[in-house]
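Blinded run. Sample ID left blank on purpose so nobody reads anything into the name before looking at the predicted structure. Input follows.
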Amino acid sequence: MEFPLVIGLNMSHAAQMVAAVLTGLGFGFVLSRAGFDRADNMAAIFYGRDFRVMRVMFTAIVTAMLGLYFLDLAGIMPISQIGLLPTYFVPQLVGGLLLGVGFIVGGYCPGTSIVATVSGKLDGAFFIGGLFLGGLLFTIGYDAFAAMHQQGFRGPLLLHEYFGIPSGVMVFLVVLFAIGALAAVTRVETLVLARLAKKSEAS
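Blinded prediction complete.
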């Protein structure tokens, strides 16, 4: 399914590819400038020292959510016309946990490892190698994972549909959650940095 704005703007295939490349380059540049091309910056969230990852991601999620919500209300970009991946609760839960473990161990997620590699970071390249190896092993051994891979199928599912509440209410609740979470991690970050400063002075 084509992206609704592509249909609305009647973009040619060549224009779509150019737009995709420029968007990708811009996204990578922003991630690099935010410090997402360094494993220590990425892993710092797990030690409470630096929550830039959470701030950037929450800001991006809320911005995209509000944009899609109001574009849908205006009829410019109907959500029903956007291709959504199906929901599989069990494999996506397992995959999320594995991604989290890889994040802690390697200091990157798949996207930021590419940014790191392009920025000349060797550890980013090793991380990408691990992604390819993991994908290869999963493909080769898919028969062993097939049953689990299909568990919890719910089809394309939006958050407000899952909880059975209006989309506007869900948008409002997510915004409140994001604001509260960002305020909480700012407090945690301040306490952790203050404690580290005291230890540094004592030593």
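Unblinding after everyone has recorded impressions. The mean pLDDT is 86.
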